[in-house]
Amino acid sequence: MNEIEIMTTVSLGDTSYLLVSGDEAALVDPQRDSWGLMESCASRGVRIRYVLETHVHNDYVSGALEVHAATGATVAGPARAAYAFDHLGLADEDEIAFGDVTVRAMETPGHTAEHTSYLVFDDTRQPPTAVFTGGSLLVGQAGRTDLSGDDHTEELARAQFRSLRRLALLPDATRVLPTHGAGSSCAAGPVSGARTTVMGIERRTNPALTTRDEEEFVSGRTAGLPPYPAYYRYMAGINRSGPDVLGGPPVLRPLTPARLEGLVGGGAQIVDGRERGTFAAAHLPGSLCDELDDRFARLVGEVVPFGTRLVLVLPEPAEEAADEAVLQLLRIGYENIEGYLAGGTDAWAAAGRPLRSFRTAEASELAGHIAGRRVLDVRPERPEGGIPGTLALPLAELPGRLGEMPRDREMWTVCGSGRRAVLAASLLDRAGISVTAVVRGGVRDLMAHA
């Protein structure tokens, strides 16, 4: 019996799949931290024969080599991917088989030049039962085509148009299993919250398939795309050359105030994962507030330069928080994590070291009173427009433009919910700019009183 297990990494908006046939399996587009899955397979007597990559990923560090090192699985991927490590290159119509299942490569360039989907056959005399579409056909959308640079965006958009029409020829009942989904910046627009779908539904409802005119499709895929996290530009190179094999999750070490202070003096950046109000009331000088939730690493990747050494301040229980923070950061290639502050801010203060604070407010406090105040809107995109008289600057651009920020009076930071606003406020606070963060509510609330 063949079955497909679905594993979603909510923090990145991505899904990996385990295709099991009898006691053999293939793992599709695995995350770097696939160690638990490998243990589960071993305990069930399932051998992972293959790791299938649909494309050279731009949004996370692949776990393919981790799986290969632990299980001996063959890494297979697009023939045009130019991986620098041993792998099985699959061109159009190439097949692999294990158990009672056959997987056939189907070249679907567009999201990337080498992108390949994989058709799943329980019986090659019958139509495929499923297709792994990676970053090509998504649920209600398609993968964006600008991640390889402006020089290739239009060319890839046209390739995407053709690839999607090829996929659309599959039978209605074919399961569509994309890698990218809701929460991923690899989508060309809003994506359904559903992780999987069937071809019949997509053919009828997906704008990427219902748009029949190629020029209309291309213009819709090359204009108005939101910015993607800065760390994306490093992922393809790492994945193509082959990331370091870790062999398991690293354990983060606790740091004394003196040790942390020395690391910061040497260029390390403090990232504080505590709740936003707690951070604002008392935090280490120069630290950035990035609550430890599903978006933790993504926001680190927006505002902290890739390769920066990191030290963490974490909510309790700190050991558990450290495990979660490290896994999220490793998924996007932030490996230089020195440790976390043992005892938190209490230990820091007890060691005689200073703490900083800034004011917070709810949106209701600012609503109707924007005139005369300097307001910074740091939302990544503004579908309903902005508030007249405010400065609009996506959070990802703020670190590089802090020198342009006025300092003559207090600045208020806002976003959609307060999550980005407090991170922006910590950037301004680090730069010595007086700030109030709107930590509850956001622009919609303000516009209702405009």
Automatic annotation (TrEMBL):
It holds the Pfam family Rhodanese. This is Rhodanese-like domain-containing protein. PROSITE patterns: RHODANESE_3. InterPro entries: Metallo-B-lactamas (IPR001279), Mito_Persulfide_Diox (IPR051682), POD-like_MBL-fold (IPR044528), Rhodanese-like_dom (IPR001763), Rhodanese-like_dom_sf (IPR036873), RibonucZ/Hydroxyglut_hydro (IPR036866). SMART domains: Lactamase_B, RHOD. The lineage of its organism: Bacteria, Bacillati, Actinomycetota, Actinomycetes, Kitasatosporales. It comes from Streptomyces sp. R44. One of its GO terms (biological process) is glutathione metabolic process. GO terms for molecular function: metal ion binding; sulfur dioxygenase activity. Keywords: Metal-binding. CDD domains: POD-like_MBL-fold, RHOD. Residues 264-357, 369-450 form the Rhodanese domain.
